[in-house]
Amino acid sequence: MSRLTDLIAKAKAKDPQLGADLDREIKILSSRLPFGLNFERHSPEVVELPLRPIRKGDKVRVQPERGSTKKGDQRLWQVKTIHKTKKVADLESLGAVDVETQTVAMSDLVVIAEFRDTIWPGLVSTGKVERGGDKPYHSVINGENYHVLKALTYTHRGKVDAIYIDPPYNTGAKDWKYNNDYVEGDDIYRHSKWLAMMERRLLVAKDLLNPADSVLIVSIDEKEYLRLGLLLEQIFPEGNVSMVTSVISAKGAVRPGRFSRVEEHIYFVFFGAATVKWWNSNMLPSGSNEDTRGAAQEFAPIEWLLLRRREPTSIRAARPNQFYPIFVNVTNGHIHSIGDAITLDVDRNLVPTPEGTVALWPLKPDGTEMLWGLTPDVLRRNWADGYVRVDNWKPAKKTGSVKYLQTGVIAKIKSGEITVTGRADNGSVIGHVSVGANTGTSPKRVWNMKSHNAETGGTNMVSALIPNRRFPFPKSLYAVEDALRFVVAHKPEAVVLDFFSGSGTTAHAVMRLNKQDGGRRQCISVTNNEVAADEQKKLREQGLRPGDPDWEKWGICDYITKPRVQAAISGKTPNGQPIKGNYRFTDEFPMSEGFEENAEFFTLTYEAEKSVSHNLAFVRIAPLLWLRAGARGKRIEKIPSEGWEVTDAYGLLLAVDQATPFIEVINTSSDVCVAFIVTDDDRHFQSVTKRLPKDVEPVRLYESYLTNFSFTNGEWTE
Predict the structure, then answer these.
(1) Residue 1: C-alpha distances to residues 19, 27, 387, 461, 472 (Å)
(2) Which residues pair with 17 in a beta bridge?
(3) pLDDT of amino acid 627
(4) Distance CA 428, CA 302 (A)
(5) Beta-carbon neighbour count of residue 118 at 10 Å?
(6) Distance from first CA to last CA of the chain, Å, rounded?
(7) How far out from the chain centre does Cα 318 lie?
(8) Would you list the DSSP string of 569-595?
(9) How many angstroms separate the CA atoms of 401 and 50, rounded?
């Protein structure tokens, strides 16, 4: 190795970049495992950025002429000079032994980003849908997912509760790209390219997960599940890895001469204190091909108990304060009001009853006066919360059974261990046992459930939401919902991330979970705007290129993901028609009702470092600050003229001499969690920090931003 070290030092002296590349590759080889998952870490990925303006110093490619379907020149060039009046740029070749130069029209260039390059990310809003009041916003981000993950290290480092991803399965049928080329079945490096692609993203995702309590979920099929399992073990040695097999199509995919595939696999990686939370044992995914969860009532129901005490000692004389009338509407059996306790010397038959009601007393069938299980004050409070009701009301006989929820059951409702899905006509809660209620059994690792069928719960679901728009192999909404329920149902404010979001199923599933228990979970969905392979040729023949509006409108984000999320929330298709059909399983209601949720759509931008440091890119940095503060409430969209501003969740201070009014407002705003302070002087930053409330996080701009994206760049895998 000493000889190699000397040679590398000489290479660095002549060509620093070449020397650095050689040094990195030697380190990778020397760190390879003697046994385990070894694979080629290919050259850092390259992504084309057709929407990014051309700047001096950029890496670019020359695009093929319009109308051509040929691949075009894949060499990289650097922009040396831009001639604005002529709209051309002088280029110099990169990575070539003999340097070449050429002058090319700006319109024929596309910016290139290599994954080892430092990026300065921003976000531009492209729309929103708001029906959720003060709930946090779900985010849909259009961008290269590796770069978006990098951006999220500034906003969500260590804050994500669950990641659910459904990455490309590497079928060899043009289902994903590496360095702008589709990876096909005859590519001898197909598997190592897939592993390199996944490793880069999972290493960044690792920084986003909460190490104390979080879960990573990855769906995959048989083509890569073995390699993925080893990769997960190597990247996450501190995690607990478990694999579930899930039947997604009982009829199977026909494969002549081979077994038909009916299943996929789901890896769960648990970190810290995270464990599986589960339903009642009767409702676990099972080997049966019959889904017993046909409707919400088929879950283990909430256990209601008879309010009348039945012990022989619980007679009226034992506790007179628990002998009182409950007035019930004669017509419908709904509780009208709850009377006061009467003393032993008062005849119950002489107690007046409100008009249209009858008094129910705690009487045994033989007429013995017993006791109610709660005092009047406690029962009134529980009744107001929906925890008391009358069952089996018989109008003719004016009789029924008063039932209530015990303190332990109410506590489980409040903690999320019991899911409330709605209220009955009489105001009482409706729901079922959800998570953590049965610790005597474990969920099974083979799921065979009708609700997980990829066609009915996936393809047909997308068709209902966005008619006439096709998406290949969407996941069943209910399958994703169930997988997430195991890990976030007990976290009503969980942050869920999907950086292979495809059609947006994960965001949709999170909305379903929120509706079932009133949660405020938020989902961050990341996808690019890639146009399907079979469509690209047609568009190029029409003279279109990536970046053209008529090209971009067919991309997955604009054509599928955004419209689906909008449709799910609004209850209307893209053409404004009510969505036809009902949601099934767990929580049944018309899809046209939509969800009381908020969502905003963004496109990732690539900023210039100097623009950021000189406060010239604030408009595009602003969404990142808002995301870091929880993606809730109003956003500070522009630099405040007063030198400071405080909104629902965070504050921004640009003029340090205005710190006093800034801090005074923060002290009166209980929901503010972050204070962004723009200053180059650490002493000024510290002086403001000392005056902030302890529960408000101080963040120094733009030092924190610039440092974050400087040190998150250049992993050894690249």
Answers:
(1) 15, 11, 73, 58, 50
(2) none
(3) 98
(4) 11
(5) 14
(6) 21
(7) 55
(8) HHSB-TTSPBPPSEE-SSS-EEGGG--
(9) 69
Do 314 and 368 form a contact (C-beta atoms < 8 A)?
no
Rounded Cα–Cα distance for residues 250 and 449 (Å)? 9
Residue 467 has pLDDT above 80, yes or no: yes
Whether 296 and 587 have beta carbons less than 8 Å apart is answered as: yes
Mean pLDDT of 233-260: 90
Mean pLDDT of the region 305-329? 91
Pairing of strands 88-93, 77-83: antiparallel
3-state secondary structure of 423: strand
Closest CA relative to residue 141, chosen from 594, 558, 708, 573: 558
**8-state DSSP, 308:** B
Strand partners of residue 399: 394
Question: Rounded CA gap, 479 and 505, in Å?
Answer: 10
Helix H or strand E encompassing 142: strand 137-142
Kindly report, residue by residue over 657-681, the tens digit of the pLDDT.
999 999 999 999 889 999 999 999 9
SS3 sequence of 373-392: CCCHHHHHHHHHCCCEEEEE
Residue 79 and residue 89 in contact, taking contact as beta carbons nearer than 8 Å: yes
Our CA angle for 86, 88, 92, nearest 5°, is: 145
Q: Whose structure tokens read 């929906």?
A: 386
SS3 for 327?
strand
For the entire predicted model, the pTM comes to 0.76
**Residues 78 and 92: beta-carbon distance below 8 Å:** yes
Distance separating alpha carbons of residues 344 and 337, to the nearest angstrom: 22
**Which residues, at least 6 apart from 445, have a Cβ–Cβ distance to it below 8 Å?**
242, 243, 244, 245
pLDDT tens-digit readout, 429-458:
988 776 445 444 577 889 988 899 999 899
The rounded distance, in Å, linking the Cα atoms of 691 and 696 is 10
Instruction: Write out the two tokens for 115.
Output: 């994954």
CA 548 to centroid of chain Cα atoms: 30
**Unique residue bearing structure tokens 């053409």:** 575
- Per-residue HEC secondary structure of 157-188 comes to CCCECEEEECCCCCCCCCCCEECCEECCCCCC
Distance separating alpha carbons of residues 178 and 195, to the nearest angstrom: 11
Strand partners, 264: 246
Q: Is the peptide bond before 702 cis (omega within 30 degrees of 0)?
A: yes
**DSSP per-residue letters across 30-51:** HT--SSS-----PSPPEEEETT
- Strand 213-220 to strand 263-272: parallel, antiparallel, or no bridges (unpaired)? antiparallel
Distance between CA atoms of residues 271 and 215, nearest Å:
6
DSSP conformational letter for 126: E
